[in-house]
Design a protein that fits this description.
single chain, alpha+beta, 4 domains, four-stranded mixed beta sheet, four-stranded antiparallel beta sheet, 42% helix, elongated
Length: 635
Amino acid sequence: MSWPNELYQVYENNWGKDDEKVLLLPIYHSTVNAQVEVTLSEDGEFYSAVPVMDKKDSVTVIPVTEDSGARSSGITPHPFADKLIYIAGDYKEFVSGKHTENEKYYQAYLDQLRKWNDSQNSHPAVRAVYIYLCKRRLMHDLIGGRCLKIDEKTGKLSQNNKILGISQEEVFVRFRVNYKDVLGRESRTWKDFSLYESFILYQSENQDRLQLCYATGKNTSCTYKHPSKIRNAGDKAKLISSNDERGFSYRGRFDSKEQALSVGYEFSQKMHNALKWLIEKQGIAIGSMIVLTWASNMQTLPDIIGNPEDDLEDEWDMLEENESDDIKSTLVSDTMPLYRERLRKAVWGAKKQNEIKSQIDHREKAMIMVLDAATTGRVSIGMYEELGISEFYQNVERWHFETAWNCFSGKARKNEIRSFSLYEIADYAYGTEQGDFIKCKPEVRNQAILKLIPCVITGRRIPKEIVRNLFHKACKPTVYQNCYNWRKVLEAACGMIRKLMIEEKKARGEKEEYEMALDYECADRDYLYGRLLAVAEIAERVTYKKEEARTTNASRYFEAFSNRPYQIWGIIYKRLIPYLNGMPYTQKQYYENLISEIENQFTIADFENNSKLKPLFLLGYHCQLKNMSSKKSVS
């Protein structure tokens, strides 16, 4: 199915189910932020009014018409709760300025509410609100109840007072109705399902203009005013729009907007409401971009942006501060079998293959959607994919297994095998050091993540541009003030280079593996030069005193070495000789022999080749570095 149909099915399968955290909006309804709450009796008598001071609590579900749900200007009242200018008959007595005369707004609202109240689908709350607002006393009661404040000199609403940042004349009012049957009804009208149903029935019986719905193939009431507020309550961008009287996007292809697209009102409402619900429930916001995944059976899917092992980090929080290092070490994946076990648990929720098979319904699908807005009025779908749920899980696991690298764990104070979140990859590839962190511009990060998502979920090959950027960044250690930042870039670069190597092996039909251990047999020029640089780094650093924080010659010449290895190696080795001569004889022999062993693996042509090194150079460097750092005898 296409994404509109999948979203429609989400609505049909989940409407009416209890979800305490996020409400799946009923059709013909939307959300607003209310600033004032008025309580009435069932007979329409004023009881109290209070300002809504909690921003989270201010989110209010309201009935909307096709016009009011898309209103931007003109007189288009909401059917029930609305702003003061629409619902207060005494508004003009207390407001100065351009909206002093609100009678047209008030009458339009009251006429619309009266029709609902007079219909067979009316509701006690509608009756109570209608009776009360006909009295034209709302402003008097709000001011008398100290909910709104007036300027004593002018007798008008004070311009200095605001509620949740909204000026008093612009506040939105919601209603609470205290019924005589206290235990029988929900007093908060914005949470009253019986009121939702009342308006849905009322609207359904008053639909006209039947046309062909392109989504369902049925003749039904269609709309060209589709909902906004897709990504959040303040979002003005629309996913579907036909406001094209002057832009002429469809002219030349079609005569009218009806020919371009015709969608049933109910279908549009259900589709958009399901999308809003999914985004609020499980969408990942990355700046203006939303990354959304869901399963056709609504089971929880692994995070495709973050590192799945982060979900297991809570295990650390359960440990006491004085817990032994041995116990902490059990939570670190320092071998590939242990990493694969923890990765499988993080992605699938189980460690063993037979447990996994019993938990996954292979008939289900996983959907992945990315939304972003280039302008304030339009949101676009940057990516949409559907695939079998087992394939989705396998691809996510494969990505994190093949991009894993041997990294330093700050928590365990030892090496661990881990993968990287897409945030990390994007920031390290395109960002700059900002204090203790590496960050890149939001729009650049979004584009990088958008390129990487298909690699995670469908197995698409990793973009070489990202690997190249990581390689170049990792070859510049002296650019980073914080050496820990450079180490993170280096580790991420190695992980992505490893992934690239695996993909290239797969393309050649070779075994799809690339070990993280030092490969003593590898005679590749780039790999061997990386090993030489690592030996020079360690050999010089072990001569430093513990408190010394000097930059080694290997680090200082790192970038130049990656561009002209043969020439720069001569310089680095010449500067290393004094450090070697100052060592004890056995230690000096160890480093000299190791350098000779590596040099002997080169062909003469490869060794004297002064062209730029390729990314494999970093793997040789880091593997040699880790190998030597783990050997106490060399220091």
